[in-house]
Design goal:
4 helices
């Protein structure tokens, strides 16, 4: 069913991972150049893949186990993306003038939080269905 709470959480992930990387900067180097996810091919590919996985997961409402697994894969992808940003930020801070880290580096953290909330709701639905089956 589309009207479940996990669908709302997954729509938020689609919006966060699909739209925000285009508007929020990842970092600014000391020369004043602002970098967005579009400037990083790996970053934009991972963000779009994350948004696509969340969108596909929305329409897997009939198979909760596959939806749960797909969300877990999406969390792993976001953890990889977060690790990539941490690696890039550690490489950026080696210069004599400190570069500014952007708020866009926190997008994977927010995505992970909403994916965890969606998985908790999916687990509750699965437990509810199992308890009803037990009563039969």
């Amino acid at each position: 069913m589309i009207q479940r709470i996990q669908t709302l959480f997954l729509i938020v992930v689609v919006l966060i991972a699909g739209l925000l990387p285009f508007f929020l900067s990842l970092w600014t180097n000391p020369k004043g150049t602002v970098f967005f996810a579009v400037d990083e091919p790996l970053g934009i590919a991972a963000f779009l893949l994350s948004a696509t996985l969340a969108l596909v997961s929305i329409f897997l409402y009939g198979n909760r186990k596959n939806q749960f697994v797909l969300n877990r894969l999406n969390m792993i992808l976001n953890l990889f993306l977060l690790g990539f940003f941490v690696y890039r930020s550690l490489n950026l801070s080696g210069e004599t003038v400190v570069s500014e880290k952007g708020i866009g580096m926190l997008i994977p953290v927010f995505s992970i939080v909403f994916l965890v909330l969606a998985n908790r709701a999916i687990k509750k639905d699965e437990d509810l269905v199992k308890s009803v089956d037990r009563l039969r």
